[in-house]
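I have been asked to look over a protein record a colleague put together. Alongside the sequence sits a line of tokens, each denoting a local backbone shape. I have pasted the whole thing underneath without changing anything:
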Amino acid sequence: MLTRHIAGAPVAAIGLGCMGMSMAYGPADDAESTRVLHRALDLGVNHLDTSDAYGAGANERLLGPVVRARRDEVFLATKFGIRLPEGASHSATPGTRVDSSPSWARAACEASLSRLGVDTIDLYYLHRRDPATPIEDTVGAMAALVADGKVRHLGLSEVSPATLRAAHAVHPIAAVQMEYSLFSREVEDEMLAVCRELGVTLVAYSPVGRGMLTGTISGTEQLRQEGDYRATGAPRFSAEALPTNLALADEVRKVAAEIGCTPAQAALAWVLARGEDVVAIPGTKRLRYLEENTAAADLALTPEQVTRLTEAVPRDAVAGARYAEGAMRFVGH
């Protein structure tokens, strides 16, 4: 596995986003997900990404036994800040709010450590930020967790470049997690440059466009039948937007065929080609997709191939927002 770094720690260039194992993409299958986690580690995919919001803690509990059994092989990332109401099972539940208060940072970290059954989290992210709470206060509390040995490195997710600068002035920020793919390129406006100025790794989530770039999506009805949140909660997969976006994905498929890889592999290789300070965390709960994604780390695109993939999906051609309106309120602060 191609290796890159977060705060000097070696991580797989292609990690594993674990959210879908516990929510959003149809029924959970913990036994199969456990097999995927072990296979990922066998393949050198040491970077596992979760959150306390994924399945209301269920995802951390799922990862716990695997991580404990193979702790030396894992770079473990989790997050706090999306606070679910009591009894909720997912972050789309009414009453979900963002809480980036210092007191919640500590309480949430303790709860994550307990669910995971570990003493230390390698990378602890603020998942979303409440703009009413000064980022300096939140990061100050997170820095105290580092001082206590509960956390090794700090990260932020879906913040503004100004917030990253202010946070980094309080304590070094090791990574910023942002949606980044051929379908979502907002980070290229400013965030990527600020990350490079400060020496912060960019962690690209949804690097295959929430599956849009895999070639496996045929229509909204397919997703609805599978109990997939994208059928109702992801504007780019709506009946109105999907035909436009699938046409763009088909252009990526054509370039991938010429390269000699799958569309998902081309999309992942494109993300990795953005720089050695970028890592990707595609999510999957199936072995065949894990192995397909992992193989993309061996794919070195030529500059011409990068350009052709970039031109296949013009930024202003993508239909629909990244998130539904309610969720978009929580990004970019």
Summary: The CA atoms of residues 5 and 11 lie 5 Å apart. The domain at 3-214+272-298 is CATH 3.20.20.100 (TIM Barrel). The chain has a mean pLDDT of 94.
